[in-house]
Amino acid sequence: MDWYSKLVAALKVLLPLTALGLLSTLFLLSRNVDPVSTIPFAEEDIRTRVEGQQITGPFFSGATEAGDSLSFAAATLTTGTDNLNDANEVTAQLGLVGGTRIDLVADTARLDLVASKVNLSGNVVITTSTGFTIASDALLADLETAMLTSPGQVQANSGFGDLTAGQMVLTPSRENEPAQLIFTNGVKLVYDPKQTDE
Question: Residue 172: CA atoms inside 13 Å, Cβ hemisphere, count?
C-alpha cells in the first residue's frame, strides 16, 4: 500500500470526525434565545388587541331588498365596548340594479350592523362608473337601501367639469329608474367644454 492510499484512508476517517466536532461546538457554544422576547409586537399593539377583539383583513358582502349588491373590506376591524365596529383602510363597492357601479375608499369607518349604517370618514373618495370622482371628509351609507349621503362639502370631477356642493345624496335606482346623484346647498359648477368634446 503506497503513501497516497494511506493518506486517503486516513482522511476518510479524520474529515467526518472533524465535521462532527465543528457541529457539536455550534450547539455547545450557542446562546439561549428567549422566543417570546423576539416577537416584534409593540406595547400599544398588545394593549389594543387585549382591550378589544380585532379582525385582520375582514370582508363581507350582501344585497339589499331591491337587489343592489354591496361589499366591504378593510385592513383591520375592532369591536368596541359600545358594540360598534371600527375599521381602518376601508374599501367598498356598490353594484346598483340599474347597472351603475360605485367604488368607495376611506381612511376609517364606523359600522353599526344592528342599524345597518356605516359612517365613513377621512379622505373619502367615491368613484362611479358614470364618470364622477367625488371627494369628501365624511359619508353616511345605509346598508338596507344603498343610499349614500355626504353631510358636508363635496368636490366632484366629471366629464363636463368640476363641481362643489354643500351636500350630496346618491339614491339607488328604483322601478327601472336610474340612480340619481343629487347635489344641494350652494352648488358651484365650473363647466369645461374641452372635457365634453373629448
Answer: 25
Q: What is the pTM of this model?
A: 0.66
What does the buried/exposed string (b/e) look like for 24-34 if buried means 16 or more CB atoms within 10 Å of the residue's CB? eeeeeeeeeee
Q: Fill in the DSSP letter of residue 26.
A: H
Per domain, the residue ranges of the chain are: 54-197
Nearest Cα neighbor of 134 from 146, 120, 144 is: 120
Backbone dihedral angles phi then psi of residue 65, each to the nearest 5 degrees? -65, -30
Question: C-alpha 115: how far from its chain's center?
Answer: 22
∠ CA 107-169-173, nearest 5°, is 110
Q: From first to last of its 198 residues, what are the pLDDT tens digits of the chain?
A: 677 788 788 888 888 888 888 887 777 766 666 655 556 666 766 666 666 677 888 888 888 887 888 899 999 888 776 768 889 999 999 888 878 888 999 999 998 878 888 999 989 999 988 888 999 999 999 888 888 899 889 898 887 788 888 898 988 766 666 778 888 888 888 877 665 554
User: Which cell is 129 given?
Assistant: 362608473
CATH superfamily name and code, 54-197: Lipopolysaccharide (LPS) transport protein A like domain (2.60.450.10)
